[in-house]
Amino acid sequence: MPDTPIADFHAVVPAGGAGTRLWPLSRAGHPKFLLDLTGTGRTLLQSTVDRLLPLTGPGHVLVVTGARHATAVAAQLPELGPQDVLAEPSPRDSMAAIGLAAAVLAQRHGPDVVLGSFAADHVISGRAEFRSTVREAVAAARTGAVVTVGIRATEPSTAFGYVRSGQPLGVVDAPRARHVVGFTEKPDAQTATEYLATGEYSWNAGMFVVRVGVLLDHLAAQLPALHDGLRRIAAAWDTSERDARLADTWPGLTKIAIDHAIAEPVAAAGGVAVVPGTFGWDDVGDFASLGTLLAAGADGTATLGDAAHVLRVDADGAVVATAGRTVSVVGVPDAVVVDTPDAVLVTTRAHAQQVKLAVDAWRERGRDDLL
Description:
Elements: E1 9-15, H1 44-56, E2 61-66, H2 70-76, E3 85-88, H3 93-109, E4 114-117, E5 123-125, H4 127-141, E6 146-151, E7 161-168, E8 178-184, H5 189-198, E9 201-211, H6 212-222, H7 224-237, H8 242-249, H9 258-268, E10 272-277, E11 280-282, H10 287-295, E12 302-304, E13 310-313, E14 319-322, E15 327-330, E16 335-339, E17 344-348, H11 355-364
Parallel strand pairs: 1-2, 1-4, 2-3, 6-10, 12-14, 13-15, 14-16
Antiparallel strand pairs: 4-9, 5-11, 6-9, 7-8, 7-9, 8-10, 16-17
């Protein structure tokens, strides 16, 4: 039934990264997934878990996060138990995070349960469409495929990777699932335009659905040392040996994204499928993206904070975030002004991707207090 949890399905939420293109709102110590960036009253992490729980049921959501964020994650998600938050000692990229969750799930529930990995910092609308897509992805994953969710490309963006669809997978309960021909990481503008014209490509949103045993078998074949290390840690996770195994094994694990470790080589061998996501999706990658989301709200303006403190004069498209100070933007369309107690950012939507350069520059000056 559409409104019932999916049997033997577990959601994994990797909650990492500093969101440096959303600085100074997002910081390494308090990153964007812990923030309410859309004014809903729920943080991005909370919203992610809200839409996953109806699909999994209680006790079937794992959040993988850095040790420095584990307390904040647990505080924001009281519906999760201590066993549902896996704390990494240091960031080792998405393959280690998702692989750890897979290994822990295999240890607790066996290799046949299905894992779905969904980032903690994306904004998704159209929950019915999201649920339908995930159900198809799980059905496709039960065949042994590694399944990704492809987001319909609406423009030739160079900020996303692309997934090329092939022939139908032929699964009754996943009628839209297709074989994946290949992945392309962030092409140039001309290539992206050519991809869009074919109708064969979708954006890679980084959502993966797969049986845990299948994922671990692929990892053993591609990166055996990483697989063995994660298995060693998972075997000790629910015992008194956890800290010792993390200390002696985690620092040596290969740092690599799941896209490069699994998706690309397995797709080349014909083992990856894609289900199109018909829901609204945004990775909130910068202030231009956030401005679009905020402007879609009731007042039609891109304001985060009390709109009574914000004045725009001849400044259409200006994005303003304020913690309470009065901000006036005059004669600067598409400006971005972000005011926090210890830092102010002024840029434009066109330069939103370059905010990371400011973070890098402050780091070089030794201003770790700003990061």
